[in-house]
Amino acid sequence: MVEALSGLFGGVLGTLGPFLLVLGVLIFIHELGHYLAARSVGVHVEVFSIGFGRSIAGWTARNGTYWKIGWIPLGGFVKLHGQESPEDRVAVEAEARAKGEQAPVWRAGQTFAEKSVGARAWVVAAGPLANFLLAAVLLAGLYVTAGRPNTAAVVTAVQENSAAARAGIAVGDRIVAIDGRTVTRFEEVQGTVRLRPGQALALEVERDGGRVPVTATPDRRELTDRFGNIQYIGLLGVSGGVPEYTKLNPASALMAGIGETVRLTEQTMVALWQMITGRRGTEEIGGPLRIAQLSGQVAEGGLAPLIGLMALLSINLALINLFPIPVLDGGHLMFYAAEAIRGRPLPARAQEYGFRAGLALLLALFVLATWNDLTQLRVIDWVAGLVG
Can you tell me the distance from the alpha carbon of 24 to that of 202, in angstroms, rounded to the nearest whole number? Predict the structure, then answer.
């Protein structure tokens, strides 16, 4: 049994270093965004924590902020001074007096609750924005050092009986637009087609000096990697040229990094919408175990692929936090939007019910992600084998 457990979890445990590196950087940058935004509007930050639970290391800065590392490395938080409403503060003070403890000392002008709706929204939104910025900077760094991959969207081979063959696409055709959107790189074609299995695409190709409209419906394919991860993708059945890497200057690299961040964000949102509408399976939703697995797998290829993965995960973290779910940053922004429209905050009971519903939804997503991780890591099969 010991050997079986070692074989089952050895790969995951062996990726602990890359996993902690990736997750730690993403969490730190996210919370740093909240921290810097809070300081910019004069809100005192009491605690800056990477990880949850008891502190394994910590120190107090000159400005009074306690920086700490928790022993559970699955998240982080910043504790803003005066997050409680004035009514809640009265209750906190009364509770402290009832216990014989010293009541909190509120710093005038530095409490979060007394700031304007716009200032509070800025503090909350800064976390996801920092993750988007991190992704753009990481990608820009890769484009400066390793070069930006670029492959002309020219067809070099067409598979028989493929979607491209049925549509009349020929070797030498240059794909210049998909659904009216201009494309210049073969990677753009792949990225769009991959997310559109079984859906008709209006292509425009250059052929013999002219432009020809073509309608192609990508074939639906199920892929299973060596770790058992399953996903459904669209395939045209064409090949492009050999990728070329062009090193960019810092300014061009930053602009390219921002553009790639926008493109990856769009692709992720399309994939999420397809899951919501049932056109894409939810088995692709993963949790910490999947991230650990991917981190270890990608780290074997060197630092550059790991940085690329970090950029992609940073975008995903930003998007997840912007979901309009109470408890997440997007949920707080939703409440602030309602407050701005109404001229006053939502009733305390409405907010409480919202947070309860949001917590239940997050718990359900966590259970789903964990189930997917355990299933695709073959843990469920292993347990079933023991019972059987």
Answer: 42
